[in-house]
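Re: the multi-chain job from yesterday

Posting the exact lines I submitted so nobody has to dig through the queue logs.
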Amino acid sequence: MQDLQPKTDWARIRADFPILNERVHGRDLVYFDNAATSQKPRAVIDRLAHYYLHENSNVHRGIHELSNRATLAFEAARKRVAQFIGAASANEIVFTRGTTEGINLVAQAWGTKNLKAGDRILLTEMEHHSNIVPWQLLAQRTGAELRYVHVTGDDGLLDLSNFEALLDGVKLFAVTHISNTLGTVNPVRELCARARAAGATTLVDAAQSAGHLPVDVRSIGCDFLAFSGHKICGPTGIGVLYGRAEKLDAMPPYQGGGEMISRVDFQASQWNTIPHKFEAGTPDIAGAVGLHAAMDYLDEIGRDKIFAHDQELAAYAMQRLSEIDGLRIFGPRENHAGLVSFVLPEVHAHDVVTLADQHGVALRGGHHCNQPLMRKLGVPSTARASFYFYNTREEIDRFIDVLGEIHKFFSR
Ligand code: PMP
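And the result, structure tokens for all chains:
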């Protein structure tokens, strides 16, 4: 039977990213640092230019035409985000600077109101610093206690054997959807259901997932979810916090200023409705508009196809990496997201990354904002190759050749 699904033309898609034609140290660039930030397609770059050329103005209170254009574009982006993550309403979408600010907003506004001494916050050992430190600050302010779901070791899975016991007395459970170091895809739907059944409020860090696989907040069943525009082909400086309407409604504001009020008197003020209550000051209008273009771009390809492509590249990279003697790979072997962390025997990750850069291959080496996890794995750092849909098997072959040379050089 004929295949009715049109085949994705990945080579044509790759051509949408002008920066991928850069030469680095005299070589063709291989960009494998997508977990840190993604590259931007021409559609997003052009949309940003169009905004500044034809629509730029401040939003909401303007009466003139340009302000109307900017407001329409900004609020259209909010509606598009709601659709992108399956939220019930655009009122549940707060624009932030990124994942980090979204999590800080919840810890500050929701946490300070709802937590008291002795309450528990449950995280996992694979959280990014952005999903640890805001909760530590909250715990210090309130006297709440932090607990962690363990990670099983190099396999990089969550140990859920005592999850119900850990949930006892927990008011807030926060978990990453995809680990930025291990590539683990956590079963967030099941975890949130179990946490909610135990009475906890739930937050999902979708920094590594929102642009890589279909994400639906109502199907996940979380109360909050945060992600960053720059990791999903959008601009830097814009991010999203989703919050269930009843949660956002009941929260005090995060920051004070213009936009977030309905009335200000000399002694006290009244707050605007959600989501504006959480958006003090002039927002990143161009960022939101660029993010809208990025979401349209990704959904035209299809996030299910993007994830299948990510997984295929990761599987191929792991297979090729295991050809290198003594190389240690972290994270699960199956159901792996599009990134691979590894350590070459006797070679510091920073040396791997520095030497790979000389060959035009952009990797990342370090603790990846996962210092506690690194300690648990018993390494100071790892090298990481992280892929996106514009990467190719041929690039992985080049990366493996370069690693082979580095390995040979150090084992002389
Ligand atoms: N969480 C995870 C899992 C991440 O990978 C990152 C970025 N590396 C963040 C949070 C923080 O994102 P941002 O710096 O865009 O706020």
